[in-house]
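Q: Structure for this?
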Amino acid sequence: MTTNTLQGTKQASRQRQIITGIVLFVIALLMFVLFARNTQPGQQATFNLNTGDTSEGTIVIPDLVLPVQPSLYALIAVTVFLAGWQLARGIRSLGLLVGFIAFAFIASFLIWATKDQAFNLVGMMSSSLISATPIALAALCGVISERAAVVNIAIEGIMLLSAQAGVVSATITHNLWVGLIIAILTGGLVAGIHALLVIRFKVDQIISGVAINIFGTGATSFISSRYLERNIDGLNNSGTFANISIPILSKIPILGPVFFQNNIIIYLMIILVVVIHILLFYTPWGLRTRAVGEHPKAADTLGINVYMMRYVNVIIGGMIAGLGGAYFTVGSVGRFDQDMTAGKGFIGLAAMIFGKWTPIGAFASSLIFGFADSIQVKMQILGINIPSEFLQMAPYIVTMIVLTGLIGRAIPPAADGTAYEKQ
Amino acid sequence: MTDNTKNTTEKQKSEQEDKRGSALAENLLVPVLAVLTGLIIGGIVIAISNDASITAWGHFFQNPGAAFKASWDAVATGYGALFSGSLGKPADMIVGIQHYFATGDSKAALKSFYPITESLVTATPYIFAGLAVALGFKGGLFNIGAEGQFYIGALASAYVGYSIIGMPWFFHLPLAILAGAAAGGVWGAIPGILKAKFGAHEVVNTIMMNYVAFRLSDWLLSGPMKSSGFRPVTPNIEASAELPRFFPDPLRFNWGFPLALAVAALVYWFLFKTTLGFEIRAVGANPDAAKYSGMSVVRNIILIMTLSGALAGLAGAAQVLGTDHWVGQGFSAGYGFDSIALALLGKSNPIGVVLAALLFGILRSGATSMQSLAGIPIHIISIIQGLVIIFVAAPAIIRGIYRIRLGHAEETVLTRGWGK
């Protein structure tokens, strides 16, 4: 559908270059108006870089003290410089540019928020990673599925069903690992139903996804009202996975506590990002998947079984979403609450699009969303007077801005969303 | 030459009539069977989740008859509660009317008609919201934002309703209605513009707008729009902004329902009898061809999303001004997603949407009785709805189950990926 004029021709790409440059200038302006203007000279921001862990082997590093105004103006200056460069010459690696701009904006926000106060940066990074986990897993599910050209809107429903199945089985068997495996299998099963509807019955992919979401929300709420709420200890009280500290690595200052002191689900997520990246771009299977997603007819003529590849991809994606569902219950609170996924499935899709359908891009975008999620709690602590509801809106508005493609093109796999008819 | 063309047109005409005949059969038969199958599966769920029935099945080999009877009882009680809660008991109605004619006391009569009027009242926002989604579908757009647009429309019309005091009703009421429609229209236009200008897929954007609407309303209801007191609700709207009710309390049947029917007729006329409606349908059926013949796809997309949002906003306005008279949190409670099921069930045709909305109104208002009388959680309705959508969207399943062989009816293509 050729409604948008901003993707495609060379003239369009020059247009896009200018628009991105202007957007960067606007961001720099925002950084000035929102942050730099509201500071006084001489203010300092203190960032704690330790977790307060005093056990043996912990390296304690001094706090990072930044002078507020000079730091802010430095960040703004760099942003303006990049904006100018983009307008004039165009920056090739748009991904890095976006990453840096995101970093600059978030950094200036934090510096402004922490003026004359102390703020635990490591704690913030750690909770961002934790919040990002379900989003990243949802995004990875989306990546695998859509690389094979099957749109999977049902991630929200899949995560709810897996979360519930996981916690109930874990409670009944008094074994968290059983819960984890059941959750993963449930995800695969529900995704398999989606795949069946979409591939075999040629149901519109979005309708199937919406139907599974409605069904998933209703079924989990039904089971919760009917069974779980009346028998919490017997059915809905599983406990959670404990954090595992990786021996030497967890003692590395800053990175250690953030990356190497988490529970199994978060470790699995990080491993999956790497594994899927390798699988998708460095193995024959990945090549076939991408072929099926870009030009299924050509792939078919080469002898690739398009239907089978799509089934496999969607089901594997579903299992990953099942892991994401497990995070909500056995990985976090140890019980199921109705509608507990709160739209994370959809935000995962946005992260996937922001990350340009790559695992690493999806992971990076999930971190940004995770940051937006976890900053809300800290806002109260920092004494910022923005009503919490507006902060809660932030991830969704960011998603919409991302989808406009103003910040980098968002081109999906070519056959995304279309059913395949074997001729 | 003229003879040949005349013959071919005759043949084409009769072919067309045949197609229309079988299409009607399919359009009517599949949805009806889909709902029926959904209800049957719902019944199975009720039977499985019923305590008495489970214990009876435990003793199956001693007393098989009791097991079946227990299950049947569970289902019968459940669906019985559904019908009595949504349509009322005819016996009560007759007694009530007799009593009224005998003594002039209308209380019993009114009470007996409460269920069926409540079903109509519940169906009213469904009609509007279903029209909203159906209009989107006709234009090839997926408006999942009906929920958020509903909410925003409700808040806007509530605001006009309670903040303007002393205005006569023939200004106040239309103003409040317009405010709801306009607010919903704006809420729909935003994803529409993003889609038209940037190709951003409206599915994710409308879902995001939903969440933004929820958070915005959370803030409004606990701050600027909160009435005095502890509950996060708006003040009651002025009497001059209310959609008048037909009968005295406790019946809440109001002008919202006739308004909904009128709007449905209006949408039908617009879609099928005007040039603009034709353009919208053309863009929905084949955007490239539409563009080639000179229609502005960009303008039409924005128009469709705005109108769709306005209709959903009207749903909220009708609910506030006619039924509730105030807005609280959790106000919309699933109307948005339900309306997707509605539009699919009604095949995006306004007449079908009205019929499907009546059905959903009955199901929904009956579900509350199911919960209070038979102890079945209200969420059973979502389960049934999800199943109905799947059955309608994959007619092959219904055809397989019931061994029907019908012609190939027209399917609207909805997905084109994330926007190209």
